[in-house]
Amino acid sequence: MGLTKQYLRYVSSAVFGVIGSQKANIAYVTLRGGEKGRYVAVAACEHVFIWDVRKAEKVLILQGQKHEVTFLCPSPDGVHIAVGYEDGAVRIFSLLNGESTVSFNGHKSAVTVINYDALGARLVTGSKDTDVIVWDVINECGLYRLKGHKDVITQALFLKKKNLLVTSSKDSFVKWWDLDTQHCFKTMVGHRSEVWGMLLLNQEDRLLTGSADSELRAWNISYLEEGKADGEPRVKKEKTLLEDDEDEDEEVDESPEERILSCKKFGSILREARDRVVSLTADNKARVIACHVSNETSPGSIKLSRIHDKMSAEEPVVERMLKDEIIRLTNIKASAKIRWVDCLSCAGGELKVALLLQNNTIETYSLRTLNNTPTANKTARLTLGGHRTDVRTLAFSSDNLAVLSASGDTVKVWNRSTLQVIRTMACEYALCSLFVPGDRQIILGTKSGKLQIFELASGSLLETVDAHDGAVWSLCLAPDQRGIVTGSADKTVKFWEFELIKDQGTWSIQEMFCDIVDSTLIATGSADRNVKIWGLDFGDCHRSMFAHDDSVMFLQFVPKTHLFFTAGKDKKIKQWDADKFEHIQTLEGHHREVWCLTISPSGDYIVSSGHDKSLRLWERTREPIILEEEREMEREAEVEESMAKGDVPVVPGETQGEAAPAGKKTVETVKAAERIMEVLELYREETRKMEEHKYACEKAGKELPPPQSNPILVAFGNVSTSSPCLFIKIHSVCFFLVCLPACVVILSELEVSLLVLPFPYIPELLTLFNSYIQQGLEVELVCRCLFFLVSNIQWSPLQFLQREIESKEDVMFFADATGRLDEKKKKKRKRERAVLTIA
Ligand SMILES: *[C@@H]1O[C@H](CO)[C@@H](O)[C@H](O)[C@H]1NC(C)=O
Ligand SMILES: *[C@@H]1O[C@H](CO)[C@@H](O)[C@H](O)[C@H]1NC(C)=O
Ligand SMILES: *[C@@H]1O[C@H](CO)[C@@H](O)[C@H](O)[C@H]1NC(C)=O
Ligand SMILES: *[C@@H]1O[C@H](CO)[C@@H](O)[C@H](O)[C@H]1NC(C)=O
Ligand SMILES: *[C@@H]1O[C@H](CO)[C@@H](O)[C@H](O)[C@H]1NC(C)=O
Ligand SMILES: *[C@@H]1O[C@H](CO)[C@@H](O)[C@H](O)[C@H]1NC(C)=O
């Protein structure tokens, strides 16, 4: 290979193994005038999958980018679907071709609800950021941002009768908005807890709300006609009756200004379950409602956020509005916990119900609503294309064409080119796996210490061997390919030999012992986030590298190379060079912990699995990676990530945010400050060494050999700090050159970097600057820094103390720094004065 190795880029190629992600809802969609109730849209991590539930086939993928899908809503005409993402973005896709046509960016965090108006001309979005935004779909722009809620928006509905909007939130309020004037004219305070669901029923004469208590509240809406005095903007004080607990259910005090509608409680339904309502869903004709509740007594996991709470399997209760009463229809009991529900009324009184379950399954049911006591029949179940539980082991076949994935209960073999499942077989909880040479059998090592051998042609379990007393952690092929080596939690390593059973023509395995494998390097990853590279010749650790921001979960060499990949709990996959100890590339895509990966024998493909239930295929391209460029790109991406979202106006009349972009805590700023600190520390260290040397010489009465210079100084041509002339060379030129190509950025961000510099370094910096000026070196740069320091740093000892304390708490510190930067412009005059004083 020679001295220069060429690294090739791997890119994401496909996401599979996900049937439906838990973060977003499920929705019936129509495709090209196809049969009603045949297609459902669900999130699949960052994508949206459209499934044909009848054929259990994925028919369309709406490609996302980076962030997970959090909500989806088809347009009333069925042609488009609006998709909301974790980062607050909303994109509208055409269901005809799967292309994204429009995108809206106005929220700062996850979109929690989206609804179209009846004509499909406007869209309302609610978010975790507590804002509600109304968008004009036709002109592709924001119309109004409605602020007022204090917590996550849980529902937002347009009315048909009037230009009104009603919203609910976890802040326990339901708010009515007049869209003509964009103000909230009514706040309903009748709920004591979060309002989780809301429906408009009976031609918008009824509002039904579900909250964290066991009561479903029904409200009588009456529209007041005389209300709209022309041109007179209604300025209505919002009601704050929080203190008034007595009449919590009454809409009291219709103020004279409130001439649009009245909304009075007229009844409530006490649910049987006492747990909170997760959602209230109505069918397309608003005739049947599904109430979906959580059940806190079911075992939970801290991984789930509030909007992801669990629910009882016997919910939802499907109920119907009949006249003014809600009549119980039936219960649907799904085979796992339900995450989301959607209902669709079809011809002949048939109701279709689609359930997204918590174990990566979709189930559909059908019932006849005209019956008095209908029973819901299960019509479909989508399970084949993914695992119920997380995939813990993956393996490639020797011909690179098939890949196996095994979870807590099943092993699947996939066709790598089509990503279709070839085989699904029940197995024990698998932890490691491989294809037996010849690719006709697979072996799994299980949590219970067994080895299970399956035959692919028949899809049958050939043999189960009790191999170890503890979990089988790893399984690998012996170098001669005629056996395997297993490592177990029982602290033993066993060697097994394949034994060809002649009459059946299949392999069996037999325990045996053999010599250590021939190899030169071993790499290990661990929970301490480091990767260590060991030489097998002397068993020494060549290098330990900080690899991931969380535990390293998996590590594998690219066959026949010294390149390897690691997978981390930090959602990342990274590639490394074990000879040069270099980080080559980071593959990002998983939204949760990455458990394992497998690299094809050719090195061209990688498949990884994560806690987000996705399996991801990565492909090697022919594009070479230049490491410096790669690092630079990563840094830029990080900066973009860390920068607060620009407060660009989204809706008319919104003003631009005030934070000056230069004042942002960016990775560059922090790094530049760190470099300045490094230089100052080096200076301090070298000065100390020289003084000690001088003292030692004086004591000894003769010239002693000079102390060892810092390698950095040697590297730059033996410069010494006793000669500031050379030191500034490092500081302003070489130092920045080292950091190329960030050089330009650093110079432009120098001022901000100085602000980020902890105060104790500043006197030293000033001393240094002083000596440079004395020698007439780098005067321009030094003056620029000096003026900046003088005008921006408050010199009182108290300030000094405060800053010392704050420097221990980054957040405060940066906030402070930014604040002072904002004052920069105001101080411009002062700065000029400072120039004069110093000059
Ligand atoms: C709803 O309100 C209207 C107007 O106030 C009233 O006429 C009607 O009787 C009310 N309906 C119920 C069921 O309370
Ligand atoms: C929650 O679910 C469990 C099991 O399904 C059931 O026994 C229990 O009654 C439910 N709890 C409530 C409060 O409904
Ligand atoms: C998960 O889904 C499968 C198939 O849909 C179902 O049979 C099973 O009971 C579910 N398991 C759990 C633990 O919910
Ligand atoms: C559900 O199944 C029952 C019994 O198999 C049948 O009588 C009924 O018609 C089915 N309902 C629907 C909506 O298909
Ligand atoms: C995978 O699918 C392709 C295309 O259908 C087919 O040609 C190939 O034989 C399949 N491979 C395996 C291993 O099933
Ligand atoms: C640096 O200085 C040391 C001692 O002064 C000397 O031995 C060494 O050769 C010098 N290195 C270079 C690169 O000039």
Describe this structure in words.
- The chain has 839 residues and is of the alpha+beta class.
- It folds into five domains: 1-15 and 519-642, YVTN repeat-like/Quinoprotein amine dehydrogenase (Methylamine Dehydrogenase, Chain H, 7 Propeller), CATH 2.130.10; 18-137, YVTN repeat-like/Quinoprotein amine dehydrogenase (Methylamine Dehydrogenase, Chain H, 7 Propeller); 275-384, Beta Barrel (Lipocalin); 386-517, Methylamine Dehydrogenase, Chain H, CATH 2.130.10; 665-796, no CATH class.
- A four-stranded antiparallel sheet has the order 1-51-50-49, with helices on one face.
- The longest helix has 34 residues, at 667-700.
- The structure holds 2-acetamido-2-deoxy-beta-D-glucopyranose (6 copies).
- Residues 335-336, 359, 361, 381, 383, 388 line the site of one 2-acetamido-2-deoxy-beta-D-glucopyranose.
Describe this protein with a few key phrases.
839 residues; alpha+beta; Methylamine Dehydrogenase, Chain H; Lipocalin; 5 domains; four-stranded antiparallel sheet; 51 strands; flat; disordered C terminus; binds 2-acetamido-2-deoxy-beta-D-glucopyranose; WD40_rpt; WD repeat; snoRNA binding; repeat; TBC1_cilium_biogenesis
